[in-house]
Amino acid sequence: MGSAGRAAGRDAAAVTGLECRIYRVPTDQPEADGTLAWSDTTVVTVEVQAAGEAGLGWTYAPAACRSIIEETLRPVVVGSDVFGAPGTNAEMVRRCRNFGRPGIVASAISAVDIALWDLKARLVGLALADLFGRCRAAVPVYGSGGFTTYDDETTAAQLEHWTGELGIPRVKLKVGESWGTNVERDLRRVALARKCIGDDAELYVDANGGYARKQAVRMGVVFSESARVSWFEEPVSSDDLVGLREVRDHVPCDVAAGEYGYDEAYFARMVSASAVDCLQIDVTRCGGYTSWLRVAGLASATGLQVSGHCAPNLHLPVAMAVPNLRHVEYFHDHERTDPLLFDGCQSVVSGELRGGTDVLGHGMTLKDVEALRVVRPVLRGLEPRAVDARFDELFFDQIGARPVALARRDSGRTKCPPKAERIGSRRRPELLAGQLVRNVSFGTKRKEKVYRAPAPLTEPCEDRRRAGHRRRPARSRRCARRRLHHVLKYDVDRPSQPD
Fold first, then answer.
1. Three-state SS string across 142-181, please?
2. pTM as predicted
């Protein structure tokens, strides 16, 4: 596109649209670290549009991010200067002042900021790494997984995959199992890891804040002496800056933290406390590319290296643009999740990720929704029923993935949809014929609960059976039909009575 494309982009420099979607991808098996267990990964995606192009960003955060993005951030972004991502970032932060930035708000801002930078690079016809300014051709990575729920066979297979098939010369293992109460297994697993990867590869451990201060010092010394561990991540809580400094001063291996940094001030405090040897920055949490570059500059000014925490495909462009980068985390969950959802993901070759110059933006696009049959969709603001990840049929709307009928492949009948949002009762004037009556109670007060349905109701009783409701006894079914017909007729064909 070049200068001509940039000029054309300047003529239509306002962001014209924003779309948010949510997906949940189950893990391949139960996973845990020293202080937390999980069984799926939730991905919140954001697309922003301008001048016929779309920029993509995402974060790994709860589904609650969507309400922040759509209700608070969308009015800031739509209509803003497409080439002014830092200014838009600052305005998003100001709009969320009363919500508290750390956590969900910062993750939402990060996803939008990433999308804005991607859109800008696409409009000017450049790879995002070239827009930032490259200072390296490839980014070193380290393999990350080794969850405490893995048995020895699974752990060994994963480590050998990284060091053998992918040629990654550095790997990381989770320790601090059960808040540091199972140190014998920690030591045994670390010894196993060293045996699997050989003498040449670097071995890292991550306690996720599971140890106490002096316990972390003792474990760090043993890890270093027995297995030549060179990286000790979050030996104590990352909020305990004094504790991190104490561990750093007494163990041979490098101490790292920072993945829970949601603003620049957090990193400034960590740097001022001399708490770490390497600062971890997560582009999906810290505020996007805008804040990531600022934190990397802060670390450089104090002689610290930085490491990209997780999200390897999103970190690739910005990691290529900073001289004080040590590496990027090649996290097992995101290694699986990203190719399922996005086209254009990069693969590790000889322990490195390489970003091409022939791509626009970061080079990734959201896959067609019909290809996303292996992921678990998430209803707006509601938790889905724990069902199998494989569905016979999924229906998607324009805002996100919303299941109407969820059917397991190994079952002959359709399952009930997840409980939907209650939106009214028989006397509510906003009740529409296109809304599905999920449940009719027959108590003394005879209340009718009306729930949202994505398609108009033509034959209510047939729709109820197709939606998977359990069959009632014959008399109850007849009563339900009569009452359902009355509810719809009363609220749609007749005006509501004043309260």
1. EEECCCCCCCHHHHHHHHHHHHHHCCCCEEEEECCHHHHC
2. 0.75
- Give residues with Cβ within 8 angstroms of 303, minimum separation 6: none
In this model, does residue 349 exceed pLDDT 50? Answer: yes
CATH of region 129-363, choose from 3.30.565.10, 3.40.50.2000, 3.20.20.120, 1.10.10.10: 3.20.20.120
Q: pLDDT tens, 47-92? A: 999 999 999 999 999 999 999 999 999 999 999 999 999 999 999 9
Q: What is the DSSP letter of 273?
A: T
Say which DSSP state 83 is in: T
Six token digits for residue 4: 């001509």
Which tokens sit at 65? 């991010």
Q: Does residue 432 register a pLDDT over 80?
A: no
Compute the chain's Rg from CA coordinates. Answer: 26
How many CA atoms does the CB half-sphere of 275 hold within 13 Å? 26
Q: Is CATH 3.30.390.10 what the domain over 2-125 is classified as, yes or no?
A: yes
- 302-307 long-range contacts, CB within 8 A, separation 24+: 302/271, 304/271, 304/276, 304/277, 304/278, 304/279, 305/277, 305/278, 305/279, 306/278, 306/279, 306/280, 306/281, 307/256, 307/278, 307/279, 307/280, 307/281
Q: Where are the domains of the chain?
A: 2-125, 129-363, 422-493
Distance CA 196, CA 228 (A): 14
DSSP secondary structure string for all residues of 325-351: EEEEEEEHHHHHHHHHHEES----BTT
- Cβ contact 46:27 at 8 Å: no
Residues 6+ away with beta carbon under 8 Å from 306:
278, 279, 280, 281, 295, 296, 299, 322, 324, 325, 326
Tokens 């996973």 sit at which residue? 31
Amino acid occupying residue 209:
G
* 224 burial via Cβ count (<10 Å: 0-12, 13-18, 19+): middle
CA-to-CA distance for 315 and 54, rounded, in angstroms? 19
Cα–Cα distance, 440 to 106 (Å, whole number): 42
139 three-state secondary structure: strand
Tracing tokens 């007060």 back to the chain, one arrives at 445
Extract the tokens encoding 411. 């079952």
165 with 136: CB under 8 angstroms? no
In 10 A of CB 80, how many CB atoms? 20
**Whether residue 487 has pLDDT greater than 70:** no
